[in-house]
Design a protein that fits this description.
The chain is α/β, with parallel strands linked by helices. It has twelve helices and twelve strands. Helix content is 40%, strand content 14%. The radius of gyration is 21 Å and the shape is globular.
């Protein structure tokens, strides 16, 4: 679509030119990395180098980094095989009500299989404290799963401190972190969190959809989720997606080389919020977001799905919450205990370092017009 005004980078990002170029080049070199002849060995060598690139951005060794098909697969692998690894310890899991469906639905599935799950409830600001987590731990806790950056509010959870608290309680408890919205969006490399398992996804950072990774800390003997030909050191079978892997590494390199990206993203978010407050006085900020690329706002009493559709008709893309909710009210905003009119009108805005002031102005105009023309349940 021409003149697209896109403020939904947490749902997905456009493929960066560097990633598209690497993808096309890798498609042209079609060898299977597992084949034994020289032509295919080149593909294996490229995957090795790409793994080193992504591992470097994680701050980990390339032996700790495994490619998967997406963040959802990484979360499933970490949680399902993590609890299995600690089965003898117990069947209790701790997670939060803020997690993405990739974690929540996996936990619910495990509940059906006999696991017991404690869901930590956020406060009104969408935050979870270390103390809250510490009091939920039990002698039979097998695994903790906590996200780094919430995909709807941009709140950054205190994962590093939570890891310390969990390990002080019992070093055998596995800590999984869904860092799909945090990879290259927070200043510290992810391995510094100290978690045992960390999931990320390529399409949130300018790689195409269909590529993710799981960090498995050295010494954690996670079994594979997918068995078969023994790729990825026997831990994730399936012929390596060489082109997606090349694109993922290229996107990582491009992000890492752009040292002002976080500051630029935070600055355009701040500008957008101030323009929106000016143009639409009824707008309330649910959370300005700690992470530079996400914030949540609401037009109390309006229906966010209607606003999203009306803006979409003008080529302006925002989200009424996680794109995975398909029209259902956001479980994150509900868990925060927002009043119903705030829940109804909740919108997520998400940014790239290259989002412009002109785009922010266009969003402010479109939202003002929508608020003026649409029906509200409040007088
Ligand atoms: N976790 C979080 C926090 C997300 O925001 C998403 C996607 O929106 C996922 C997991 C799932 O990632 P993927 O789309 O790569 O499966």
């Amino acid at each position: 679509m021409d003149n697209l005004i896109y403020f939904d980078y947490a749902a997905t990002t456009p493929v960066r030119p560097e990633a598209a170029e690497a993808l096309t080049a890798a498609l042209g070199q079609f060898g299977n990395p597992s084949s034994r002849y020289g032509y295919a060995r080149q593909a294996a060598q490229r995957v090795k180098e790409d793994r080193e690139t992504v591992a470097q951005a994680f701050g980990c060794s390339s032996a700790e980094l495994f490619f998967t098909s997406c963040g959802t697969e990484s979360d499933n692998w970490a949680i399902r095989r993590g609890v299995e690894l600690n089965h003898r310890k117990g069947t209790h899991i701790v997670t939060t009500n803020l997690e993405h469906a990739a974690v929540l639905e996996t936990c619910r599935d495990l509940e059906r299989q006999g696991y017991e799950v404690t869901y930590l409830k956020p406060d009104r600001a969408g935050r979870i404290t270390v103390e809250q987590l510490a009091t939920a731990l039990r002698p039979d806790t097998a695994l903790v799963s906590m996200m780094l950056v919430n995909n709807e509010t941009g709140v950054v959870l205190p994962v590093a401190d939570c890891v310390k608290a969990v390990k002080a309680f019992d070093p055998a408890i596995l800590f999984h972190c869904d860092a799909v919205q945090g990879f290259l969006k927070t200043p510290e490399p992810l391995a510094k969190l100290g978690a045992d398992l960390i999931a990320v996804s390529g399409h949130k950072i300018g790689a195409p959809k269909g590529i993710g990774a799981l960090y498995v800390k050295k010494g954690v003997r996670l079994r594979p989720l997918l068995t078969g030909g023994g790729q990825e050191e026997g831990l994730r079978s399936g012929t390596e997606a060489t082109a997606q892997i090349a694109a993922f590494a290229a996107a990582v390199r491009a992000c890492a080389a752009d040292s002002s990206r976080l500051e630029r993203t935070a600055a355009i978010k701040e500008y957008t919020l101030s323009r929106l407050k000016e143009a639409v006085p009824k707008l309330e900020v649910i959370d300005p977001g700690d992470a530079p690329h996400i914030c949540a706002v609401t037009l109390p009493g309006y229906k966010s799905e209607v606003i999203v559709r009306v803006l979409g008709d003008r080529g302006v893309c925002v989200s009424s919450g996680s794109a995975c909710h398909r029209g259902k009210p956001s479980h994150v905003f509900a868990a925060m205990g927002l009043p119903k009119p705030w829940l109804d009108g909740a919108l997520r805005l998400s940014f790239s370092p290259d989002s412009t002031r002109e785009e922010a102005d266009a969003l402010a105009d479109a939202l003002r017009d929508a608020a003026d023309s649409l029906f509200t349940t409040l007088s």
